[in-house]
Amino acid sequence: MLIVYDSKTGNVKRFIQKLDMKCVQITPDLEIDEPYVLVTYTTGFGQAPQATQNFLATQGHLLQAVVSSGNMNWGTRYGLAADHIARQYEVPILMKFELSGTNKDVMKFKQEVSQIVYNRKVDSA
Predict the structure, then answer these.
(1) What is the mean pLDDT of residues 39-59?
(2) How far apart are the first and last CA of the chain?
(3) Residue 18 falls inside a structural domain
């Protein structure tokens, strides 16, 4: 499963580097042709980054699930970008992680993505 990510301060990128999975960073001209899981950050007062929103406007039809980083200091706004994206694109939130995530977060992420891959194989059989 392809992992598409957006990173501003480097926290998401550090998380991605721990995965050892097929990953691609969002750029203005990124186009993909396969299902993916999105990992992004939360900005402002709980919004998804503009680059993420722009990407989803053209590539959202392939989105399978969303993950967001955040900072728990924001309380109820922690990782809120995932909530907005999940609602808009009708996909599950796999998880949220703080800053660049822990090893436990990485393990959970890999398990969740593996489950999506398994379910897609079962559904197509």
Answers:
(1) 95
(2) 17
(3) yes
